[in-house]
Amino acid sequence: MENWLTKRAALSPNKVALIYQYTDFTFAELNDTVQLYASKLFNDDIKAGDRVAIFTGNSFNGYIATLAVQQIGAEIVFLNTRLSEDELSFQITDSGAKLVLIDDNLDSSQLKNIDVAKTRMSELLSMDRSDSYQPVAEFDNDAVTTIMYTSGTSGRPKGVLQTFGNHFYSAFGMSLNLRINDEDSWVMTVPMYHISGFSIMMRSLLYGIPVYLIDKFDVDYINKILINERASIISLVPTMLKRCLNDLKPGQNFNSNFRCVFLGGGPIDNWTLLRCQMLEIPVIQSYGMTETCSNVVALNFEDAQRKVGSSGQALFPVQLRIAESDADGIGDIEIKAPNVAKGYLNQPELFAAKMTSDGFYKTGDLGHLDEENFLYINGRKDDMIISGGENIYPEEVENVYAKIDGLESIALVGVPNDDWGQVPVAYITVDSDAFLNGPDLIEYGRNRLAHYKVPREFRLIEAMPLTASGKILRRKLDEVEFEVM
Amino acid sequence: MENWLTKRAALSPNKVALIYQYTDFTFAELNDTVQLYASKLFNDDIKAGDRVAIFTGNSFNGYIATLAVQQIGAEIVFLNTRLSEDELSFQITDSGAKLVLIDDNLDSSQLKNIDVAKTRMSELLSMDRSDSYQPVAEFDNDAVTTIMYTSGTSGRPKGVLQTFGNHFYSAFGMSLNLRINDEDSWVMTVPMYHISGFSIMMRSLLYGIPVYLIDKFDVDYINKILINERASIISLVPTMLKRCLNDLKPGQNFNSNFRCVFLGGGPIDNWTLLRCQMLEIPVIQSYGMTETCSNVVALNFEDAQRKVGSSGQALFPVQLRIAESDADGIGDIEIKAPNVAKGYLNQPELFAAKMTSDGFYKTGDLGHLDEENFLYINGRKDDMIISGGENIYPEEVENVYAKIDGLESIALVGVPNDDWGQVPVAYITVDSDAFLNGPDLIEYGRNRLAHYKVPREFRLIEAMPLTASGKILRRKLDEVEFEVM
């Protein structure tokens, strides 16, 4: 297919592409700005096939820089801005990024000591443009365009290789599901470095609809946009939705063009859903992950009321099945779809291990289907915790703490939390002669891990509950007596 | 991707899929009926990879039978029901069809003497179903699903190999252009055996919208549907549109859900467009061909008034360029798109000859782009005539007549016609001692060619106008004195 940005600018030059801080940019203006930026990047020796890491919030510069890297034909490595120096260092090295582009308005102290070329996004603007630069003519469905890192139960984080085809089929499936029309626009407050955010940018190019880009989660500002502007769709995780609802004054509601909250990032409580129903705010629940390049399952409007609690049906391009189900029909969710990623960078064997012999991707999630093939999520096969839309793998956090002298054993679990869905809490046992305390342990974690991964609380216990074979029985931990450290 | 029919039936079982003679069929009912039919075909020894020729009008049985062949994984060979015995015989032999499925309500005398297995569509219904039949699990983008024959300047007709991917990207491009929504439905009166008709069937599965299937062009019946039902889109060729307009009574207009006439099959006159404007009937002009698996260029709603006379912009997945343009910017229209067909059956070299070294398909049409990249068609490089939406290649007709004793030379040209756009007329020179007359020559043609290809009139001239190198100068023929035979 032709380059989506140049094609969209040719098809609808005067339509609004981006709304940032109440300023509109048309697709022609967006394209011109991105190409200028790309030309300067090209002059700075970034070429097709290179990898460029992006360290940005949802800023205008970040939006432009990201699309510019794509226009050159270089691969975008998205960095989660909340990660620690160690975590970022690994991802930058693993990806072989030639350059890190850093958003000016962001604290980037975690990057200071990492040995890689770095450029502030604004610095690039004062550079020369290249005369020989040309945007790529085509977006090849099989070519990788974005790399996003995910953690997991096993060791190192994995760079998920997402192709243009992945993004295309994801956007296609969603357009059928949401019946995108000319009046639609999408509010992007979920981060660009997550697939939930970046996928909005790609949909905008494919559908030709505007993005309201929101640089930080300021609930007052967001509600102003939802109430006073013509915004029609917003992607939210449950934590954000609750804050928006809490901030609504009596009698206030979203604008008349508003169509739905598109909800991802874990389960939502029934009370919040009920509040949305009373306000007549449709909530489209969905299910997806970085490896499936955004959603593979979503509710539709007709069934949103009838199927409360379900994530919906597998989208048009998606095959979904439940493998090894138990007596209640609960089993492993497996996915086959053209939006399943190409693999893990440098660790193809780990991706291969998640594929069945007939080409289905084993999500690691548990779920069941009702008689009409609507999916209900029943948790994780592993012990992943979802906190405010971010995934936390206990093993990764436990490994960081395991190095501490005197800490005998540690087990991380998620405990329910009204604001975040879950928060991580650590149960530990210590040597009798160890001098450890909670605040120090938290400080230790904050120096080495993204803050959302750090246990909120350390709970000292006598002994871990174990299986017959000596493994920790995580689900028994909430029955064990503990003392907060 | 998953099998589109079974997927659609799973996603929206209770939505209307097909409306035939005022009777509704849901996607669940359509799927059940198609699978039953496919099971019987399978029992009749039709397997994946076989080719099955379909000889049908726009009947219910034809609709079901066509989808059933696709469900088995066999390739559909569409036969134009207006072709002569010679023409059909060639296509059936060339395609190696294992079976011809014949619509019961159709005169099929042209097939009588052709040596191939034939089954009436209704006969199959009394056969046994197979217990081992399973529909194909997936529609592979690279797999051929339909074969449609086109004539051309050179010798034999060519079977165009159309893949699932071709149909998919065509439907995707159209959905963005027309902003398909839940309330849409598509009236299918153009024949199923043309890409303009079959593409509606594939869009219905992908978008989940109903098709109004119309079995013959009865203008009274069609207008009833456009006026009294909720039909929103109709594909028409100019001839048909004019008839519908002529049949409207003063004060009558199409229903309030009607969105547009989707117009293909050659140019339309300004008077007809003006009438549509006065009636506030949006006309979306478009451009496409069998080899590009339906439209590659179409107008959109915003520009329909502003760009009257243009076929529109290249659809999202389509790259279009004008090669070797003259001083007025008029040149060869070339297309690169994932909906360009895979090739010609048994004649790959002919398709290869139409491809440029950088992967563009040379359409053989002439056109130019305005400053906003809207396409205007300026005719054909060759001398193809379009009559009522059917393509006629003069060389094919001339070759049939060239065998007649005493007929010295013949040249076919299209002359303007209010009803059909163009009709074919033959200029001939004869030996001085030949006894030929118009009615006999017409009769001769009707026995050997589809009737729409037969010259309406034979015009006797003294001598052909020739180029310096001795080739017939077709465009000078309208200046030559003639006598109607």
Characterization of this structure:
Two copies of one chain form a homodimer. With 485 residues, chain A is an alpha/beta fold. Chain A folds into two domains: 4-378, 3-Layer(aba) Sandwich (Rossmann fold); 385-484, ANL, C-terminal domain (GMP Synthetase, Chain A, domain 3, 2-Layer Sandwich). The first copy, chain A, is built from 13 helices and 26 strands. Chain A has helices at 4-11, 27-43, 60-72, 85-95, 121-125, 164-178, 195-208, 219-228, 238-247, 270-278, 348-352, 394-401, 438-446; strands at residues 16-20, 23-26, 51-55, 75-78, 99-102, 118-120, 144-150, 158-163, 186-188, 211-213, 233-236, 260-263, 283-289, 294-298, 313-314, 319-323, 331-336, 343-345, 361-369, 375-380, 385-387, 390-392, 407-417, 421-430, 458-460, 483-484. The first copy, chain A, has a nine-stranded mixed beta sheet with strand order 2-1-10-9-11-12-13-14-15. In chain A, a hairpin with a 2-residue loop joins strand 21 (385-387) and strand 22 (390-392). The longest helix of chain A has 17 residues, at 27-43. The mean pLDDT of chain A is 92. Chains A and B meet through helix 1, helix 6 and helix 7 of A and helix 1 and helix 6 of B.
Reconstruct the topology from this structure.
Two copies of one chain form a homodimer.
Chain A: H1 4-11, E1 16-20, E2 23-26, H2 27-43, E3 51-55, H3 60-72, E4 75-78, H4 85-95, E5 99-102, E6 118-120, H5 121-125, E7 144-150, E8 158-163, H6 164-178, E9 186-188, H7 195-208, E10 211-213, H8 219-228, E11 233-236, H9 238-247, E12 260-263, H10 270-278, E13 283-289, E14 294-298, E15 313-314, E16 319-323, E17 331-336, E18 343-345, H11 348-352, E19 361-369, E20 375-380, E21 385-387, E22 390-392, H12 394-401, E23 407-417, E24 421-430, H13 438-446, E25 458-460, E26 483-484
Helix pairs in contact in A: 1-2, 2-3, 6-7, 8-9
